[in-house]
């Protein structure tokens, strides 16, 4: 079902596509549970509706970066298992424990704080120990792992529910770090289990590993970008290769269409000058809405039945496309990216135009762009 909404711009979020993507990912990972990663407001798609739809489609876990993101979802009524992993001193540990959120612990400082939080909450905290198996970002160094495991086992205030890690290069098929990280992860898990940890879940796979490396699935896969129907990287494949469909369509209403003479400069700096008499269309989206300024002169947009290119600079609120003499009416759709059904470009196309990754393209869409949810009711559900 589609609805016509006349607004300056909109990001349509197709929840039926998201559910179908979750089902496709679950089918690909038969032995593992699925965590719907909805950090950063669901990669720009809206954390709450996406978490709900993912759970309807079979996601057993919801994952966020910050505890505040997780607490907001709990407050909005999202139940089930939930993990958040990006902590800083001060918590909110107690609130997370009270909300039955699994908390990631990467170091001794965090273990000490979560123990205090559990005491304050008057209940046992569910913690997941994170190992740095080579990413060099968050996670406990292998040399410090035994001490962290022992300290967690010795604390009655916490129960270790998970052992986990994160890949550095899973989106580069064949990268030697993948096998090295996997081997080290197995070793660190084996150590913890030998010492008495009985984890509910062991997990290391993000979207690219979920799609291409079945040996990394363990008990749980943490999928973000694939759930939103976007390929982690062109090298991994196209979304359709995995039965995935893009969830977000970004569109705007043409604000002005007009004829201009040859030699007319377009937008700040006059980096585009019309080569001949032509028509221009004004698209009311700019870098304040998350359209990358780096895509000036390059970003693709479907307007008037053809894919055009951003003419000149992307400004804060608007950019222009050269219609090459075609005419469109004000109010006509300019589609920046979507699933491609109408011939529109993809988020991956914009990533290439801006020299970035498609993750950033969807995540950076600003709060001034209303999200319009399509297919909120799950037609596959029995209820
Ligand atoms: C963001 C994130 C994920 C999801 O990554 P995708 O590539 O989007 O699937 C998984 N795990 C951690 C720790 C993350 O930060």
Automatic annotation (TrEMBL):
Active-site residues per Swiss-Prot or TrEMBL entry: 39, 268
Cofactor(s) of this protein: pyridoxal 5'-phosphate
Keyword Isomerase among record annotations: yes
EC code: 5.1.1.1
Isomerase keyword on record: yes
Keyword terms, alphabetized: Isomerase, Pyridoxal phosphate
UniProt GO MF annotations: alanine racemase activity
Pathway linked to the protein: Amino-acid biosynthesis; D-alanine biosynthesis; D-alanine from L-alanine: step 1/1
Name of the protein in question: Alanine racemase
């Amino acid at each position: 079902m589609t609805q016509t909404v006349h607004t300056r711009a909109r990001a349509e979020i197709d929840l039926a596509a998201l559910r179908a993507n979750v089902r496709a990912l679950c089918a690909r990972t038969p032995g593992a549970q699925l965590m719907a990663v909805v950090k950063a407001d669901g990669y720009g798609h809206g954390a709450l509706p996406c978490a709900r739809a993912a759970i309807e489609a079979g996601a057993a876990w919801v994952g966020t970066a910050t505890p505040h993101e997780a607490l907001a979802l709990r407050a909005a009524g999202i139940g089930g298992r939930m993990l958040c992993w990006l902590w800083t001193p001060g918590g909110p540990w107690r609130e997370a424990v009270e909300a039955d959120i699994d908390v990631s612990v990467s170091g001794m400082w965090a273990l000490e704080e979560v123990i205090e939080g559990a005491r304050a909450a008057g209940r046992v905290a569910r913690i997941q120990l994170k190992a740095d198996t080579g990413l060099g970002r968050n996670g406990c160094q292998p040399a410090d792992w035994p001490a962290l495991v022992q300290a967690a086992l010795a604390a009655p205030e916490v129960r270790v529910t998970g052992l986990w890690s994160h890949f550095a290069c899973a989106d580069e098929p064949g990268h030697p770090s993948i096998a090295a990280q996997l081997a080290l992860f197995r070793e660190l898990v084996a150590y913890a289990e030998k010492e008495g940890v009985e984890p509910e879940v062991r997990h290391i796979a993000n979207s690219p590993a979920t799609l291409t490396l079945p040996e990394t699935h363990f008990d749980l896969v943490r999928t973000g970008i694939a759930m939103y129907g976007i390929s982690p990287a062109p090298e991994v494949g196209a979304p359709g290769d995995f039965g995935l469909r893009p969830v977000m369509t970004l569109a705007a209403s043409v604000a002005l269409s007009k004829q201009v003479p040859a030699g007319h400069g377009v937008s700040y700096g006059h980096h585009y000058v019309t080569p001949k008499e032509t028509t221009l269309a004004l698209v009311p989206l700019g870098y304040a809405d998350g359209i990358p300024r780096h895509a000036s002169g390059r970003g693709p947009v479907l307007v008037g039945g053809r894919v055009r290119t951003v003419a000149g600079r992307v400004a804060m609120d608007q950019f222009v496309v050269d219609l090459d003499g075609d005419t469109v009416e004000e109010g006509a759709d300019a589609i920046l990216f979507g699933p491609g059904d109408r011939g529109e470009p993809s988020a991956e196309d914009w990533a290439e135009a801006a020299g970035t990754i498609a993750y950033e393209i969807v995540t950076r869409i600003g709060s001034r762009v209303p999200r319009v949810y399509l297919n909120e009711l799950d037609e596959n559900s029995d209820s």
